[in-house]
Write a structure and sequence with these properties.
Blueprint: H1 3-17, H2 21-26, H3 40-56, E1 68-74, E2 77-82, H4 85-95, E3 98-100, E4 104-106, E5 111-116, E6 120-125, E7 132-135, H5 139-156, E8 159-160, H6 170-179, H7 183-190, H8 192-199, H9 204-207, E9 213-219, E10 231-240, H10 247-254, E11 264-265, E12 281-285, E13 291-300, H11 302-307, H12 312-327
Parallel strand pairs: 2-7, 10-13
Antiparallel strand pairs: 1-2, 3-4, 3-8, 5-6, 6-7, 9-10, 11-12, 12-13
Helix pairs in contact: 3-8, 4-5
Length: 336
């Protein structure tokens, strides 16, 4: 590629990933788009479930969207650079699978740690062509978190499945068959491209918005679609009072034909919330209507937060979690 084109591609990729210029440039491949899609259905579905877990595990205020400083997507893997030790511990503990006697598997069934290096840890689903790196904090943080997770599981009388053999356990297979097959699984997998695509572009919510917090959840389907409708990813983009919403910039980036996703503004807006609250809600879907992205721009009173009278950011997060629980249609996730 010509030098000026490489420079343009790397600079624009930075907006989506929050990589440094040199990092973005190093991962450009003439044979792939600037932000490549994952190779294969297994990697795509893995990233979709990983995105779901990143959303579900996020409960604390952070400097970067969902506590992820930057992402480094490649065709056969994705690297999540986690912003802090606190977020790293919360995320990894949430992901690692454990079996609670009685039939419940907490975490991601089949997840194993493939490599532990000075860079971070590589996760994968055993028996499948999948890969994701968690990096950022020092190797000691990941080691300590894994040790703490083992102790936590033992204290509860649970079985730590991720330290088992490189194959699915009987408990994981049974749980997967019960909860991750059938209509729900088919719906989720048909729209997995949208979750994977958002994860690979999560940097946009830092580089193109002035949000003080970004939270999210998987919502129920809405009217206007056939059957149960597409997978619906709801992202709350929370600003302090007086800060301008950069809605158009974000929508243009997500719909960009070269760097974005194959989505456009949805042709309808089903008011599942009061009409006055829908003014700053933007929905994007694909032509086949398999994935739906809902961007919800909201404001909190920063003076109240400064005065300490009401932690509005945490209240917004709590409201998101409450909606997530009340609208959940999938298997229960672990709580800590």
């Amino acid at each position: 590629m010509r030098r000026d084109r490489v420079s343009r591609l790397a600079s624009h990729r930075q907006l989506y990933t929050n990589e440094t210029y040199q990092q973005a440039r190093a991962l450009l491949d003439p044979g792939n788009p600037p932000i490549p899609a994952p190779n294969g259905v297994e990697q795509r579905n893995f990233e979709a479930d990983l995105f779901h877990q990143v959303l579900d595990s996020y409960t604390d205020f952070s400097a970067y969207p969902l506590g992820i400083r930057r992402v480094r997507p490649q065709p056969d893997t994705i690297e999540l650079v986690v912003e802090s030790e606190q977020r790293a511990r919360r995320l990894l503990t949430w992901l690692l699978p454990s079996y609670e006697p009685g039939g419940e598997v907490h975490g991601m069934p089949g997840l194993r740690i493939r490599h532990r290096t000075g860079k971070g840890i590589e996760l994968h689903i055993t028996g499948r062509r999948t890969s994701a790196w968690l990096t950022g904090p020092s190797p000691k943080v990941w080691t300590r978190t894994e040790t703490d997770s083992l102790e936590h599981a033992a204290d509860l009388g649970w079985k730590a499945l991720w330290r088992g053999p490189e194959r699915w356990s009987v408990e994981e297979l049974s749980f997967e068959q019960q909860w991750n097959t059938g209509e729900w699984a088919r719906q989720f997998q048909s729209g997995a491209w949208s979750a994977s695509g958002l994860l690979r572009r999560i940097g946009l919510f830092h580089t193109l918005t002035a949000a003080d917090a970004v939270t999210g959840y998987k919502g129920l389907g809405i009217n206007g679609y056939d059957g149960s409708g597409p997978v619906r990813w709801c992202l709350e983009i929370i600003h302090r009072s007086g800060v301008h919403y950069q809605r158009l910039d974000l929508v243009n980036a997500l719909t960009d034909p070269e760097y974005g996703l194959p989505v456009a503004r949805a042709a309808h807006l089903d008011a599942i919330y009061p009409p006055e609250t829908m003014e700053n809600c933007i929905r994007l879907d694909d032509e086949d209507r398999t994935g739906l992205i809902e961007l919800r721009f909201t404001t909190f009173n920063y003076r109240q937060l400064q005065a300490g009278s009401c932690d509005v950011v945490h209240q917004k997060i709590a409201e998101t979690v409450e909606r997530r629980v009340s609208t959940a249609t999938h298997r229960p996730r672990k709580t800590h």
